[in-house]
Amino acid sequence: MSSHVLRALLAGLLITTVAAKIWGPRNIAEVDVRAAVVALVTAQGWSAYDEAATSPDPLGKAINFQAPECEALGQVFPIDLGLQLAPMLDGVIRPGYTRRFVYMGRTWLTEDRFGMRLEWLKHRVLSMFGLGRYVANETALVIAEPHDCRVADKVGWSAVWERRTRSTRLPNGDL
User: Fold this and answer.
1) Using alpha carbons only, what angle is made at residue 167 by residues 101 and 37, rounded to the nearest 5 degrees?
2) Which of 42, 98, 145, 146 has the most CB atoms around its CB within 10 Å?
3) Segments forming the whole domain that contains residue 33
4) Residues 158, 151, 170, 48: is their CA dihedral positive or negative?
5) What CATH number does the domain containing 140 carry?
6) 0.90 exceeded by pTM
């Protein structure tokens, strides 16, 4: 790929990002990801405990969930897409837990700021044209669970960002 084509692509990406920030819909920040996570977890038949009510911690408290298949609680942390607070996760995720970063339809085993931002940009551009299945907000999820319990892999976490979920229902009809 020639350097001129690469520069043109990067310039287009920059212009699209700026345009999305300026002219994109403003109600995106109002999406309540915590409530959507609690609804999704309870739709699995699991117990959910949202500890965020009085948290002064900038990372917030976890949304804990208890699956019947696991002895220990799992944790879900809504986190800003820029992942600036990701280094704080080591202090709040329980020892011996594995973690995954989830954003829309993708999952990463490690933090990937660039990959998540590209995913956001893709869906933001689609929503500018009235297309796409996701509401492109800037909140990702960090899912932590005991090393010997991998039940969260079975959950369709993308429902947290789906447009039809936002309108009142989860994919399985609950809520």
Assistant:
1) 30
2) 145
3) 28-166
4) negative
5) 3.40.1000
6) no
**Distance (Å, whole) CA 53 – CA 87:** 23
Q: How many folded domains does the chain comprise?
A: 1
| 14 part of a folded domain | no
Residue 142 lies in a domain: yes
- Give every CB contact of residue 105 below 8 A, 6+ residues apart in sequence: 119, 134, 158
What is the rounded distance in angstroms from the CA atom of residue 20 to the CA atom of residue 121?
A: 8
Contact 29, 80 (CB under 8 A): no
Residue identified by tokens 């345009």 is 19
Q: Kindly give the interhelix angle for 3-23 and 113-128, rounded to the nearest 10 degrees.
A: 60
Residue with token string 């319990």: 149
Asked if residue 6 is part of any domain, the answer here is no
In DSSP terms, 9 is beta-bridged to none
* pLDDT tens digits, one per residue of 10-40: 888 878 777 766 665 554 444 578 888 889 9
Assess if residue 69 is contained within a domain.
yes
Task: Count the neighbouring beta carbons within 10 Å of the beta carbon of residue 103.
Answer: 27
